[in-house]
Structures are given as C-alpha cells and as structure tokens.
Amino acid sequence: MGKITHIVVIPSAGYSHFVPVIHFSKRLVELHPEIHVTCIIPILGSLPSAAKPILQTLPQNINTVFLPPVNPNDLPQGVPVVVQIQLAMAHSMPSIHHTLKSITSKTPYVAMVVDSFAMHALDFAHEFNMLSYVYFPISATTLSMHLNLPLLDEETSCEYRYLPEAIKLPGCVPFHGRDLYAQAQDRTSQLYQMSLKRYKRCWFVNGIFINSFLALETGPIRALRDEDRGYPAVYPVGPLVQSGDDDAKGLLECVTWLEKQQDGSVLYVSFGSGGTLSQEQMNELACGLELSNHKFLWVVRAPNNAKADAAYLGAQKCVDPLQFLPCEFLERTKEKGMVVPSWAPQVQILSHSSVGGFLTHCGWNSTLESVLHGVPLITWPLYAEQRMNAVVLCEDLKVGLRPRVGENGLVERKEIADVVKRLMEGREGGEMRKRMKKLEVAAVNALKEDGSSTKTLSELALMWKNVA
Ligand code: UDP
C-alpha cells in the first residue's frame, strides 16, 4: 500500500449524531484502505449502549479517541435535547482542540469531517492545516433548506407556518411552512438562533456530505451541485445505514416471531431512537392497530405528554413501557401482534420478508433503511426535520401515506386502521410497494463500484490523497 492519508472525524454526542458519522468513516476506509481515520468521540453522560457493538467492529484503519464525558448536570436543564447536545459539544471543544494539537504534532492530517453539531470544531481546521467538511445525515431537501434558511430568514417577517405560499426551494418538492423542520417553528427560540448560525457557517466549509443519492433526490441534488448557484461543494454519498450485523445480539425474539409470519404481512411500527407519543395518542395507536386487523410488530416506548423526543438520550430506561398500553391489549392482540419494549433490531426487522410496511416517525436513517429494503411507509413525523421527510416521501416519491391529524391534535384509531389497510392490502399500497422496490434497486446501485455515491466519494478521496 502507498502513502497513508490521515483524516480526522468528529461525531456528536447522542446515538443519531454518532452512528451516521461512524458509518461514513467505515465506508470511506472500506473503499479507500489507504485512508486512515482518527475518530474523536465526545460523550454526554455515557456512550449510548446501542453504539457499543458498532465500535467493537471498527476496521483497523479507524482509530478512536474518547473525550472526557460531559456531565449532563453541568448543562442547563429543561432545554430541548438538540440544544443539550450542541451545548455538550461546546463543552467538549477544549478537549477536541487538545486532542487535535496532540495528534497533528506527530502526523499531518489532510481533512476534518465533523457531524453538523460539532461544527465549532471546524474553527480549528485552519489552525491545523486541514480542509473542512460537514457530514449531514440528512436528505438533500433538508440541506437545501439549511443553506437557504438565512435568506428566507431575512425575507420573512412572520413565523414560517403563517406564510400563505408554499416554500419552494430549487429542485425540491414545495412544502408548507408548518412542515418546515421543528427548529424553525419558533423563530424567537434559542434553538432557531443556534440553528441559523450553524447553517450560515455551512457556506464557508470546503464541502458537505449528505446521506442521499442521485436517483432518490435527483431534483434537489442537481440544484445543490449546480455551480451557478454558488453553494459549497455537496457530496451525496448515501444511502449509508447500519447493517443488521451492528444490532445487539439477544434481542432476537421478535425476529423469531417474524419467521412464523407470512411474507409481507407485518406492519413494523417504530418512532426511532427518541420518539414518544402522549398517553392518549398511544391508546389511539394501540386501538387503531387492533382495529386494522393486520399483524404488527411495535416498538413501544413509555408515553410522554410534553416532549415528542423524550427518549432521545436514552432517558427512559427504567420504566416498563408495556404498562402504558390499554387494558388487556396484549392479551387481545397476542395472535396478531408482537410488542418490543423500547428498542428493536430495526435493520434485521426491515430486511425480513414478513415485513410489508413500516409506520415510521420519518427519521432520515429509518427512511433510508426502509428504502434499502423496499418497504413502503406510513409517515408519522414527530420532531426535527421529520415533517419535511414525510412530504418528500408522500408527495414527491409517493412511497408513503400520511395519516390525518384530527382537530383534537390526535391521529384517531379509525384513521390509523384505514391507512394501515390502505398500505397493507389496497391497490394504492401495492403501487407504493412497487415504487419502493424500484428505489431499493436504485439505492443498491448507488453503492456499487460504479454507482453515483461511490464515484462521488472516490473523487474526494483522490483529491485528499493528492493534497496529502
Ligand atoms: N433504531 C433501532 N432500533 C430501534 C429504534 C431505532 O435500531 O428500536 C435505529 C434505526 O435503525 C436508525 C436509528 O436508530 O438507524 C434511528 O435514526 P433515525 O434517523 O431514523 O431517527 P432518530 O433516532 O434520529 O429520530
């Protein structure tokens, strides 16, 4: 092997900001073994337990450096989780700087790739003579929104949800202001101000990686890569998601259950690593699933009436979520459904032939995992950019059904039963399944040796090698 090219990668604390960057690193060194990654890992409280199996299977050319954990008690309480993660990252900056100083004193590093919440660290890239990149585990549509938000902010005086016209971004499906990501729903909030600052910073990096691929988001990606628009360089390198091998062992009871079900007969229901419902909404969902009379595999989480992302940092570990299900629900549905408390091996589930639909909160990782396994969706966005993802899935790609939220703010049981039936047995569902199968093929192709995402990553790797 020729000369080694060294790069630094910095994820953020919190499962969903840690895992994608690790997958990016794995993909990079797998395709380009002459690149060596040093991964500097910040920790808020403790490392998410689901992250541990992933770290145990890292290849030799990814080194890890664990930073001293930030104590959650040193951070303001009661702020949104994403604010907490960003503040934790700000706390980690001195130790990141210290680590960078130490490693670059021995070896020259060409580039720094950071998670979007670790963007402060890019201020050190210049000091240590590195090119600067952000890895956003998001869609091209969401990145387009990020890059255009500073301008929209200047041009708009009201909250975006009151805009009379749909928001139209180059190449993207138009969406209503109320479907804009959660961080832009209250422009007076600290979260909005922090986000805006980050998105403005994006314009000054050497490049931005996104977890999407040309065939999935052709319009938005072409617009982002159109040189006339003056965006920073954008590299779609996805779909990069976890493989079933990363899933913790010992959680396989549900897979055994799936083995006994008919092909395409089971609806998988899960709200990502953090999604929670209110008690009332949980009751409606339970009754809706029962009413649909379809088989289901539901990852049940304890309800939270205040916050949809209440479990994001694994705060709910001690509570048994099954106690919040309606009385005798488990008994009544024991032939129809399987419930798994809090966490399930999602990729293994989605790759199982018994699974025919996925009721999802539309986190981008879950979305891509479903695409990669050709499973059509019921979209139930909760927080972050999930509403935007739901619009892309339902209105642009037409691979998902979005249940109506009633005037009382709840998706009611009848509506749930209806969409489950439409997806699992109707012609409409069949069409969506076909479209999803096409996207599955396109996703697999994007990652082949001559696939669009592979080629994009290789162009960049070659450039880094030439700089080194
Ligand atoms: N996940 C899982 N089991 C669960 C819930 C989530 O393996 O019970 C994984 C899922 O496969 C995905 C990630 O956690 O890779 C969730 O990421 P996503 O972007 O969908 O949502 P977020 O957690 O960021 O809201």
TrEMBL record:
List, alphabetically, the SUPFAM superfamilies matched: UDP-Glycosyltransferase/glycogen phosphorylase
Any one GO molecular-function label of the UniProt entry:
UDP-glucosyltransferase activity
Q: Which InterPro entries does this one have?
A: UDP_glucos_trans (IPR002213), UDP_glycos_trans_CS (IPR035595)
Q: Does the keyword Cell cycle apply?
A: no
* Key words, A-Z: Glycosyltransferase, Transferase
Gene3D superfamilies xrefs: Glycogen Phosphorylase B
The Enzyme Commission number assigned here is 2.4.1.-
Q: What family does this chain come from, according to its entry? A: Belongs to the UDP-glycosyltransferase family.
Q: What is this protein called?
A: Glycosyltransferase
Q: Which organism is it from?
A: Glycine max (Soybean)
